[in-house]
Design goal:
alpha+beta, Rossmann fold, eight-stranded antiparallel β-sheet, seven-stranded mixed β-sheet, binds guanosine-5',3'-tetraphosphate
Amino acid sequence: MLDSTASLPAAHAETTALPDFARRRTFAIISHPDAGKTTLTEKLLLASGAIRLAGHVKARGERRRTRSDWMEIEQQRGISVTSSVMTFEKDGIVFNLLDTPGHSDFSEDTYRTLSAVDAAVMVIDVAKGIESQTRKLFEVCRLRDIPIFTFVNKVDREGLDPIALMDEVASTLALDLTPLTWPIGLGVDFRGLIDIAHKRALLATERGGPLTRVVPYNEPEDLLGLDGVEERIITEAVESLTLALGVLPPFDLAAFREGHLSPVYFGSALKEAGVAELLDGLGAVGPSPLPRAAAGERTVEPAEDMVSGFVFKVQANMDPNHRDRVAFVRLCSGRFKRGMKLFNAREKRQMAIANPIFFFAQERETVDEAVAGDIIGIPNHGMLRVGDTLSEGETIRFEGLPDFAPEILRRVLLADPMKAKQLLKALQDMAEEGVVQVLKPLTDPAPIVGVVGPLQLDVLAARLEKEYGVPIRYETTSYVTARWITGERTEVERFMETSRSACARDRDEAPVYLARSQWVLDRAIEEWPKLKFTNVKERG
Ligand code: G4P
C-alpha cells in the first residue's frame, strides 16, 4: 500500500530548538467569493485556541465596516475590499495569516499581499471545483512559485466525486496533487474523514456532529467494516482513496516547496472537519520565511542579523480618531525591536519606529520584538509607501511589488474648482496607498486615474469626499490602456514631443503613454523600436 505522507513530520517536533524565524508560517488564503475563506479563517483561529467562540472574524469585520463610508461600499455589495493580518500560535508555531480581498477588482492589492507570504491555502468548494477567481489568484502564486495547500471545503454538502474533482483541479491548474485527508461520504452521507498523514479515521459520534471518534489503521482496507458507518459509505471511501493513492504522486516536500505539488485536505470549515489537520500540515511542512531577492543580485536571508522588511500595504481608516495610516511591513531578516531606527531606502532617511503594532486574532498589541516572517503595522502620516524597503542602514530594494498598467482610465472632475490643490494631494495619497494610479496628462490639467477594476473608482470617490472633503465625478476618456515608456532619455523625450496629447506622467514623474486603441499601441511599438512600452513597473 502506498503511503503518500511518510515524510510528513509532526508540527510541534522540537520547535523550541529552532531560531525564532523558523517557527513562523506566513500565509494567505485564496479563494473564489463564497468558497468559505472567512469561515475557514475563523475555524483556523478556533483550532489554534486563539479565539474561543466562532463568529469573531465576521463580527470584527462588521465593526470595522461601520467605520467609514468606503467600508459601506463593502457592506452594500457584500464583499471584502481590505486586507488584514491575523497572528496566532499553536504548538510553538506562530502563524501570520494575511487576508486577501476576494473581489477581482482588487487584484493589485491581492498581488501585493501575496508578495508578503511564504505559502497559500487555496479553498475550493467541493461542488464547484476551480472557479475564476481561484484560478487568477493561483496564477499569481505560481508566478512566485508559492507552495500551495488545497482545502476542498463543504464536504458536508453534495459535491463532485473526490477523484473527479482532484482530476479537474490537477488538469485545470497543471498542478500535481496528493491527498492528506479524504472524505468518508459527501453531503447527507458525510460521516468523517480519513486522516492519511496520521493513519486514522476521524468520525462523528452523532450525525452532523464533531469528528471526535478516532480510529487508527495500518492500511485503509482496515477501515472496511468499521462499526457505526454504513458499509456502502465506508467501502466507497476506502476504494476511492486506494485508487487515488495508486495513481497520484506521494507527498514530496521538495516538489511542494517548489510549488509543483499541492497537498489536498478535504473538509468542512463550517463543521470544523479537517481544519485542525490543515493547521497541523501548515505547521509541519509549510515553509518558514524564505530568502528574498533584492535589486543588485542581493539575496536577503532571514537569519541575517540586520533587520529588513518591505511595505506591502498601506491602509487608512484603521483608527477613526486619528487620520493616521498604517503601513504593513513584512520583515525579511533580523530581529526588530521597538524604538529601532530604520532606514527608508526611497527617502534616504532614518525613521524611528516608536509604536509598531501586531495584529492578534482579537486585538492589536504593541510590538516589542519581531523577526523575519512577522508582519508589523507602522502608523505614520504618509512617510511610508507601498514598495518601500526599510532596513538597518543598508540600501536594499526588494523586488516583486509592481504597479500594473491600468485598463480603466477616467478623467477626474471637481465639483468645486477651488479644491484643485486638495484633490492633487488626496490623489497622491491614494496613489501611494496603492488604491489607484494617478496620471497627469501633459496637455490637460485634469488628472486621470487608472484602475484595474471599476469598483476601485467607487471606493476612490467615496474616500475623497469623506476623508478629504473633495467631491468628484468621473468623465470617460478615449484611452483604452496605459504603458510606461522606458528607453534612452533623448528618445523618450522625442517620443513625448511627437505624441504630447497622448502622454502623461505618473506619481513619480515617470513617462506614460495613453493609447487610444490596441492598434495605436502596436503601431507605436513598431515605430519606436528603441523604446519599451511596459505594462508593469516595479515600485520603490
Ligand atoms: P468567503 O469568505 O469565501 O466568501 O465565504 P464564507 O466563509 O463567507 O462562506 C460562504 C457561505 O458558505 C456561508 O454561508 C458559509 O456559512 C458557507 N460555508 C462555509 N463553509 C462551509 C462548509 O464547510 N459547509 C457548508 N455547508 N457551508 C459552508 P452563507 O449562508 O452565505 O452565510 P452565513 O449566513 O452562514 O454567514
